[in-house]
Structures are given as structure tokens and as C-alpha cells.
Amino acid sequence: xxxxxxxxxxxxxxxxxxxxxxxxxxxxxxxxxxxxxxxxxxxxxxxxxxxxxxxxxxxxxxxxxxxxxxxxxxxxxxxxxxxxxxxxxxxxxxxxxxxxxxxxxxxxxxxxxxxxxxxxxxxxxxxxxx
Length: 130
What we know:
mainly alpha
């Protein structure tokens, strides 16, 4: 596979970023819309496919968070960095990575419980149409 040009790489990075932002907006923004829409009688919030997609994305994201926290990717050393600089950066990255996994593990633990309650509340208050 040929290496993309810098312009192509920037476009690809922007496309991936836009996709991820869209997913975040969908997952985070849909829950309050479903709760509000259920109270206001909006029909589209009762669409079973929409609710199933939302649930599948939440489960997929939680599974990825669990997987990343338990099995980190093996470190890869860039070829251009001097060995001493690489060791320094690798040590700093390891410390930062452990700190992020600790924070994310705590956040997912709290959000998992709260998210479960919210999803349960969503399911109880606004029934999907099948």
C-alpha cells in the first residue's frame, strides 16, 4: 500500500475526526433528546432501530474501554529518535498512560453505573415502537 501524501493524510485525519465527533454527538446527545422527546410526544424518539443503534454503540464503546484498559498495545519505537530520548519519552508516555487508564477506569465505573440507570430510565419512560 503506498504511503499517502501529507495532504491526503490531513484529509484522512480530518475525516476520522469528523466521524468520531459525529459518533460522540449521537451517543451523548440522543439520551436527553429521547427523554425530552418522550415527554413531549415526539414520534421519532420511539423508533426501535434508532434506539437499538444507540444501545449498540454504547455497548461497543464500553467494550473498547474495557479492552484497552486490560490489554495495552505493545510499544513501538520510532526509528528516527535517539535511544536516550526515546527511553525518556517512553517513560513519560507510560506514566501518562497509567494515569489515563486509572482516570478512565474510574470514569467508566461511575458512568457505567449511572449510564445503566439512565438507560434503564430511558427504557422505562419512553417505550420504543416495534
